[in-house]
Amino acid sequence: MSVDQATVQRIARLARIAVTDEEVPHLQGELNAMLSFVEQLNSVNVEGVEPMTSVTPMAMKKRVDEVTDGNIAEIVTGNAPQTEDHYFLVPKVIE
Amino acid sequence: MTDLTSLTLAEARDALKAKKISALELTDAHLNAMEKAKALNAYVLDTPKHARAMAKASDTKLQKGEAGLLEGIPLGIKDLYATKGVRTTACSKILLNFVPEYESTVTSKLWRDGAVMLGKLNNDEFAMGSSNESSAFGPSVSPILPPNVSAAQAKAKLGNGNKGLLVPGGSSGGSAAAIAARLCLGATATDTGGSIRQPAAFTGTVGMKPTYGRCSRWGIVAFASSLDQAGPIAKTVRDTAIMLRSMAGHDPKDTTSVDRAVPDYEAAIGKSIKGMKIGIPKEYRVDGMSQEIDALWSKGAEWLKQAGAEIVEISLPHTHYALPAYYIVAPAEASSNLARYDGVRYGVRVPGKDIIDLYEKTRANGFGVEVRRRIMIGTYVLSAGYYDAYYVRAQKIRTLIKQDFEKAYDSGVDAVLTPATPSPAFGIGEKSGADPVEMYLNDIFTVTVNMAGLPGLAVPAGVSKEGLPLGLQLIGRPFDEEILFSLGEVIEQAAGRTKLPDAWWA
């Protein structure tokens, strides 16, 4: 399988990465190189094989469903590029 | 007085306990060496004040006889580990200003045991790479001299484009370079497809990737969560065993970490390997494998045999498919993990006309070429209509890869011996061509181990005809790191410990 230029732009949009028109052909080449590399997987018979979900089979530990921390808004927002009164600031989303 | 930076971790620990040296002088010796080695770019952040304060505290504890397992031992920390109050970037532009408010579980265990932090080590951006060249801070340079290059010639090239010098491997390139250049006694690293073992092999150092679940991943910047595992790089097998004992253990904050007692790994060093069955997988004899790698592999098997092990040929039929399956699973998980870098909650923001524009510009500007490429591949293979064809198929192949190993272990094999890399270290800039797959092939022998969640140890075993370090890899049963340390020690003893390079860079 290989991707065309429109698909490259669609993937970039889904991945939320801005791509200029000049970058598209180059990216297309690289993505197709990778896709052709993984093509060989089609020759493996995977009939009846379970897809792996956990590489180390184990029962997941659970903890009591309770609040374990809080009142640390200062810390939570401490690394944000823009904040106000412990809110994260972004451009207006809803008109 | 002997140079304190040439001690092994174990030697330094014993000297500290015997009060022959102080933690502060040991730390100062390393800080001085780091100062003279800036151009190697192994560290992306030095923390001398931090280090000296920790060393002084260790000296007090040593005086009182309250020393921890790593009391006073100076370590370098891969910049993927969150360190409270100390900038942590994953060597990405998008996190250049990030100062964590918390400490990763693994590093907090190291500090609990008395270790000293010298600084943060260089790596490929978000651990994506095999040469350390994708770092936002520029590549870390291998302290190993390239063939036919004199010390003076190398020094002239250093920091001057670095052309003709060698990569230390990746992604834990800074960790491996710092150990080989004697800029710390032990280094933390992480391994998703070979990122501990390949740089160890390239630099003549020892690298241990533990079983998935052995170390907590909490507080380590995530790349591919089902494959990532923390581990040490150090000068000797014994040193990695000492470090792993501190790093391993259950953590309620990581549900994939295993609640299982941590053994005294160092006790496995020197144990007899008599009667152990070592598998040699025929599928690792890949097309175009160089004569010298093949010879090294046979020599390794011979050493183990002489120490009483039995060598048997085994078959791991799906080996060939591990790398392509990895290049679906790892980017898929990365695209999901890296969705968090949006320029809103932390990291560097590029303003946009609306929120989508802000996301897209922030991510286009903040991520480097390799990271963008992998996010895009991951996004594609997870997108509607392709999920079953790519991702589910790759996860099925992963099951088959794991079953290959299980069959071998069920037949009585105790561990598997393979080469660590298909070649010795290459030059900086040599593999940054148009085809990304060329670089990926570096991980051909290591990636199966991550896919199956097994422990793997890379140990120096000799040099190439040009004199560059070459490593062998030992693969064990899940949670049987101890056997790898016992076997690794045999190889290390037989091969003779690698002579670390003279400080041509200083």
Outline of the structure:
The complex is a heterodimer of chains A (95) and B (506). Chain A has 95 residues and is mainly α. Chain A has helices spanning 5-14, 24-38, 73-76; strands spanning 83-84, 87-88.
pLDDT below 50 for ≥5 consecutive residues: which ranges of chain A?
Answer: none
**Apparent shape of chain B:** globular
The poorly predicted ranges of chain B are none
Element-by-element helix/strand order of chain B: HHEHEHEHHEHEEHEHEHHHHEHHEEH
In total, the number of strands of chain A is 2
CATH superfamily of chain B: Amidase signature (AS) domain
Mean pLDDT of chain A: 93
Question: Given the C-alpha coordinates, what overall shape of chain A results?
Answer: flat
The secondary-structure class of chain A comes to mainly alpha
What is the number of strand segments of chain B? 11
**Rg from alpha-carbon coordinates of chain A:** 23 Å
In the CATH hierarchy, the architecture of chain B is Alpha-Beta Complex
Portion of residues in helices of chain A? 25-40%
Query: Remind me, CATH topology of chain B?
Result: Amidase signature (AS) enzymes
Q: Give the biggest beta sheet of chain A.
A: 2 strands, antiparallel
Strand content of chain B: 5-15%
Level of helix content of chain B?
A: 25-40%
Biggest β-sheet of chain B, characterized? Answer: 11 strands, mixed
User: Please, how many helices of chain A?
Assistant: 3
Largest beta sheet of chain B: what is the strand line-up?
1-3-2-4-6-5-10-11-9-7-8
Strand order of the largest sheet of chain A: 1-2
Describe what you observe in this structure:
- The complex is a heterodimer of chains A (95) and B (506).
- Chain A is mainly α and 95 residues long.
- In chain A, 31% of the residues lie in helices and 4% in strands.
- The model of chain A has no long low-confidence stretch (mean pLDDT 93).
- Chain B is of the alpha/beta class and 506 residues long.
- In chain B, helix 2 (23-36) packs antiparallel against helix 3 and helix 6 (173-180) runs parallel beside helix 7 (197-203).
- Chain B contains 16 helices and 11 strands.
- The interface between A and B is large, with 52 and 73 residues.
